């Protein structure tokens, strides 16, 4: 499913901060399309820094290439009950919404980092997928109080 095929449904009422409710209606599975913006910006920055600081440039380029590989291989799917993370066709992690306490997308004008906390752990993910659809899915499935 692409972002063009997705139209958000209304969120469930009554969610408070620290308690996210599952949607009352059956929500479609939404797979976020990849975004290569962050890795490409890092690679371009590395090239421009090359003459000034070669070692710093190398570190930034390696990070950019690593994130580019992740953007190509990792997929996020919002299901009715959980956020699923896939590497190619293999499910590598499932995060049930009922365990979420909070989420945030940092630097909304230039989104680069997605944070969410569960009952027993916190997670930070670089924005390697469509940030607008990410926010839409989060607001639908895990509304903030």
Topology at a glance:
Layout (H helix, E strand, L loop, with lengths): L29 E2 L5 H13 L4 H20 E5 L3 E6 L2 E7 L3 E7 L6 E6 L3 E5 L4 H11 L4
Antiparallel strand pairs: 1-2, 2-3, 3-4, 5-6, 6-7
Helix pairs in contact: 1-2
Count the helices. How many? 3
Low-confidence stretches: 1-24
Query: How many whole angstroms does the radius of gyration measure?
Result: 17 Å
Q: Can you summarize the main beta sheet?
A: 4 strands, antiparallel
Distance between the termini: 29 Å
Sheet-strand content, in percent, reads 25-35%
Strand arrangement within the widest β-sheet reads: 1-2-3-4
| Helical amount | 25-40%
Describe the fold and architecture.
The chain is an alpha+beta fold and 145 residues long. It has 3 helices and 7 strands, in the order E-H-H-E-E-E-E-E-E-H. Strand 5 and strand 6 (113-118) form a beta hairpin. The longest helix has 20 residues, at 54-73.
Brief descriptors of the model:
3 helices; disordered N terminus
Give a summary of the structure in a few sentences:
With 145 residues, this protein is α+β, with helices and mostly antiparallel strands.
């Amino acid at each position: 499913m692409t972002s063009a095929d997705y139209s958000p449904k209304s969120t469930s009422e009554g969610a408070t901060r620290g308690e996210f409710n599952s949607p009352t209606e059956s929500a479609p599975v939404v797979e976020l399309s990849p975004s290569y913006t962050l890795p490409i910006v890092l690679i371009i920055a590395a090239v421009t820094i090359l003459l000034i600081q070669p070692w710093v440039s190398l570190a930034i380029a390696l990070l950019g290439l690593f994130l580019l590989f992740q953007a190509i291989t990792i997929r996020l799917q919002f299901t009715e009950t959980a956020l699923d993370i896939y590497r190619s066709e293999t499910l590598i992690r499932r995060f049930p919404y009922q365990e979420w306490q909070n989420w945030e997308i940092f630097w909304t004008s230039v989104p680069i980092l997605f944070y969410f906390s569960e009952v027993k752990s916190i997670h930070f993910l670089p924005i390697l997928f469509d940030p607008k659809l990410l926010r839409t899915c989060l607001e639908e499935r895990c509304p903030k109080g």
